[in-house]
């Protein structure tokens, strides 16, 4: 409804736009680190800022990228999941024909399949290199966004705190660290409460920078409005040459936080983001930059502290307080984005298991990840203490920001061709407008590699290695289990074996396999020759969609041995779905088994009633969980790298992140672990 959309639009101001809204704190100082050489440079940089925000933030993101959402979810993984559902490009082939019938799995695609889109789709599906490149690009975009989530709090808070006059740099650093720790401590309350709390502050911030911008414009120089002519961009770059190109690494910071509009989309919705940006954020930041430029034409010597120098003395301290609050909130957008994107990556098997807390009953996309929260907090504290000033952090920040944008542009180009089947001239126009801009900015940022630009790349490498190790090992393990799965005849043989004891109750055996009997089951029987009266092979499968409707979640098949019952149950989750507690899960499972029997799983109503009674008696006897503890080893003929990844790195991640027991909250007194290599 429009009422809910407007509520979300107001909330989004406090969550999404803090980073984008507080960039006036440091853009001009980062663009002119050596001072302003000529007043004409101010007009050139202002023109660059105006058209960068208009082209990238407004046109590209608000009107194009937000459309490429996955049932309301944004971010790099949402783009990847769209491709995975339209083309067979996933590296782990878990998709079953039944999955494509799910209501949220279906894509409303144009019927005009072009030869070009069909050819690109076939190339991607038949090329292992293309699939691998898509996956690497996805985890690189994710890694850069998490890097952004580390750098944003550091630069925003340091910039704001530096407004305290006559304070030593060490004092500024320690105050910033204290503020950062407090920020991460409130994340557990959830986006909903944080958004309601922060939104009024950001509204005051945007109003304040607008009024101060108008004040500076009127008082100092109305002539800066000439910067709306793009001719000043050409003049600036021609006049300044190499120096002007390097300064683009500072200009690009005016669009920091733009990716958060897409990454945080799952916390809100498309109209809410479009309304809040177009009506409040966009005009406010534009006026702020114009006002600062007007001030600098008269006081170019104050460029190192533009924001506070341009603030009138009468409102200096109130603005200092609001700026610090806004800087704290600026961090929120990328922290929320990091939670969202890791939640999505878990669903696609690209990140070790962590606890995902769903913090809102009304908006399922609002999540909190405790482990990630504290990792981000520690990283922010280390970086703030290590760098101490915003100069090097700004250099690093630009690389993280523009890298994510370039990856988004690349994915969106593929989606236009393969999913949307957009006319080729529109795709070409999109590419020639946005890719050159982002490549130029990326080159300017990378030029400062030694001055801090290496940092997001180093962070990205660490995260890419972690995600690649996990995904590769998971994929190899899945292929091994597929290859060595046990024939269904084994179940029939068990029913004829008098040495196998029948135990009352329901036994749930968890397996990665979505089809077949896992190898660990006969291993269990060989050690404990007994089987429950109702045995259910449970496969929890994450799909590349944001959610699975409750009534579509369970997929059940049955085998019919004589004196015990065997079911194969695939439980399908989207990356936004919360995994239910064991007691609720057991009730849902039994109800779905009964529904399966009523709907044709049995030959007659009398048989169905008898079978339902059998299952209910088994449930009354107790529900027990069997989990395989597989010790994964690389084959003897494996390379040194593969042996390190599978034998050392993967077990290390499994040991230090959450296991299936912790993830599913299985009670210990009803759990049996089965170990094998």
Automatic annotation (TrEMBL):
<feature type="transmembrane region" description="Helical">
    <location>
        <begin position="42"/>
        <end position="63"/>
    </location>
</feature>
<dbReference type="GO" id="GO:0015079">
    <property type="term" value="F:potassium ion transmembrane transporter activity"/>
</dbReference>
<dbReference type="Pfam" id="PF22776">
    <property type="entry name" value="K_trans_C"/>
</dbReference>
<feature type="transmembrane region" description="Helical">
    <location>
        <begin position="367"/>
        <end position="387"/>
    </location>
</feature>
<keyword id="KW-0406">Ion transport</keyword>
<keyword id="KW-0633">Potassium transport</keyword>
<feature type="transmembrane region" description="Helical">
    <location>
        <begin position="275"/>
        <end position="295"/>
    </location>
</feature>
<feature type="domain" description="K+ potassium transporter C-terminal">
    <location>
        <begin position="504"/>
        <end position="676"/>
    </location>
</feature>
<feature type="transmembrane region" description="Helical">
    <location>
        <begin position="393"/>
        <end position="420"/>
    </location>
</feature>
<keyword id="KW-0813">Transport</keyword>
<dbReference type="InterPro" id="IPR053951">
    <property type="entry name" value="K_trans_N"/>
</dbReference>
<feature type="transmembrane region" description="Helical">
    <location>
        <begin position="315"/>
        <end position="346"/>
    </location>
</feature>
<feature type="domain" description="K+ potassium transporter integral membrane">
    <location>
        <begin position="8"/>
        <end position="490"/>
    </location>
</feature>
<dbReference type="InterPro" id="IPR003855">
    <property type="entry name" value="K+_transporter"/>
</dbReference>
<comment type="similarity">
    <text>Belongs to the HAK/KUP transporter (TC 2.A.72.3) family.</text>
</comment>
<feature type="transmembrane region" description="Helical">
    <location>
        <begin position="196"/>
        <end position="218"/>
    </location>
</feature>
<keyword id="KW-1133">Transmembrane helix</keyword>
<dbReference type="InterPro" id="IPR053952">
    <property type="entry name" value="K_trans_C"/>
</dbReference>
<feature type="transmembrane region" description="Helical">
    <location>
        <begin position="129"/>
        <end position="151"/>
    </location>
</feature>
<feature type="transmembrane region" description="Helical">
    <location>
        <begin position="171"/>
        <end position="189"/>
    </location>
</feature>
<feature type="transmembrane region" description="Helical">
    <location>
        <begin position="455"/>
        <end position="474"/>
    </location>
</feature>
<keyword id="KW-0812">Transmembrane</keyword>
<keyword id="KW-0630">Potassium</keyword>
<comment type="function">
    <text>Potassium transporter.</text>
</comment>
<feature type="transmembrane region" description="Helical">
    <location>
        <begin position="244"/>
        <end position="263"/>
    </location>
</feature>
<dbReference type="Pfam" id="PF02705">
    <property type="entry name" value="K_trans"/>
</dbReference>
<feature type="transmembrane region" description="Helical">
    <location>
        <begin position="427"/>
        <end position="449"/>
    </location>
</feature>
<protein>
    <recommendedName>
        <fullName>Potassium transporter</fullName>
    </recommendedName>
</protein>
<dbReference type="GO" id="GO:0005886">
    <property type="term" value="C:plasma membrane"/>
</dbReference>
<keyword id="KW-0472">Membrane</keyword>
């Amino acid at each position: 409804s429009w009422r809910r959309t407007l509520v979300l639009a107001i909330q989004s101001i406090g969550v999404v736009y803090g980073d984008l809204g507080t960039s006036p704190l440091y853009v001009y100082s980062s663009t002119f680190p050596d001072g302003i050489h000529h007043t004409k440079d101010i007009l050139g940089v202002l023109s660059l800022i105006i058209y960068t925000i208009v082209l990238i933030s407004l046109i590209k993101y608000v009107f194009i990228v937000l459309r490429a959402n996955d049932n309301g979810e944004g971010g790099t993984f949402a783009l990847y999941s769209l491709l995975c559902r339209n083309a067979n490009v996933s590296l782990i082939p878990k998709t079953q024909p039944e999955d494509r019938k799910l209501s949220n799995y279906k894509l409303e695609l144009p019927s005009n399949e072009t030869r070009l889109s069909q050819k690109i789709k076939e190339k991607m599906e038949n090329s292992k290199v293309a699939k691998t490149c898509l996956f690497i690009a996805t985890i690189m975009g994710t890694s850069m966004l998490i890097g952004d989530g580390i750098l944003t709090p550091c630069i925003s808070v340091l910039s704001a705190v530096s407004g305290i006059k006559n304070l030593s740099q060490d004092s500024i650093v320690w105050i910033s660290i204290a503020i950062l720790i407090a920020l991460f401590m409130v994340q557990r309350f959830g986006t909903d409460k944080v958004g309601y709390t922060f939104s009024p502050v950001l509204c005051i911030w945007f109003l304040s920078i607008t009024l101060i911008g108008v004040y500076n414009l009127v008082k100092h120089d109305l002539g800066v409005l000439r910067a709306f002519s793009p001719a000043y961009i050409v003049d600036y770059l021609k006049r300044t040459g190499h120096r002007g190109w390097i300064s683009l690494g500072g200009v690009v910071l005016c669009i920091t936080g733009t990716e958060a509009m897409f990454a945080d989309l799952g916390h809100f919705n498309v109209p809410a983001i479009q309304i809040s940006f177009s009506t409040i954020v966009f005009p406010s930041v534009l006026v702020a930059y114009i006002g600062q430029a007007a001030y600098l034409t008269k006081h170019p010597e104050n460029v190192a502290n533009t924001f506070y120098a341009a603030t009138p003395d009468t409102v200096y301290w109130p603005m200092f307080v609001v700026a610090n609050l806004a800087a704290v909130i600026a961090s929120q957008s990328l922290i929320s984005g990091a939670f969202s994107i890791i939640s999505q990556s878990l669903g696609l098997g690209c990140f070790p298991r962590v606890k995902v807390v769903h913090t809102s009953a009304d908006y399922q996309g609002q999540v909190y990840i405790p482990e990630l929260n504290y990792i981000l907090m520690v990283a922010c504290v280390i970086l703030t203490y290590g760098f101490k000033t915003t100069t090097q952090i700004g250099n690093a920040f630009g690389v993280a920001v523009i890298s994510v944008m370039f990856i988004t542009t690349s994915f969106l180009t593929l989606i236009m061709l393969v999913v949307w089947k957009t006319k080729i001239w529109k795709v070409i126009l999109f590419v020639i407008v946005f890719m050159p801009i982002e490549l130029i900015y990326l080159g300017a940022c990378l030029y400062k590699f030694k001055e801090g630009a290496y940092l997001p790349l180093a962070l990205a490498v660490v995260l890419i290695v972690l995600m690649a190790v996990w995904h590769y090992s998971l994929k190899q393990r899945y292929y091994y289990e597929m290859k060595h799965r046990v024939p269904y005849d084994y179940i029939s043989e068990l029913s004829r074996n008098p040495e196998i004891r029948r135990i009352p109750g329901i036994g749930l055996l968890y397996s990665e396999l979505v089809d077949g009997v896992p190898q660990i089951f006969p291993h269990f029987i060989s050690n404990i020759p007994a089987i429950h009266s109702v045995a259910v092979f449970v496969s929890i499968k994450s799909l590349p969609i944001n959610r699975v409707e409750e009534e579509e979640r369970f997929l059940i098949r049955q085998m019919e041995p004589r004196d015990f019952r065997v079911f194969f149950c695939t439980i399908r989750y989207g990356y936004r779905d919360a995994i239910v507690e064991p007691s609720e899960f057991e009730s849902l499972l039994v109800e779905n088994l009964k529904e399966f029997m009523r709907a044709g799983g049995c030959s007659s109503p009398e048989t169905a009633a008898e079978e339902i009674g059998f299952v209910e008696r088994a449930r009354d006897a107790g529900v027990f969980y069997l989990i395989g503890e597989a010790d994964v080893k690389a084959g003897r003929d494996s390379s040194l790298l593969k042996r390190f990844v599978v034998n050392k790195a993967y077990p290390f991640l499994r040991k230090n992140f959450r296991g299936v027991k912790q993830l599913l909250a299985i009670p210990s007194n009803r759990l049996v672990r089965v170990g094998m290599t």
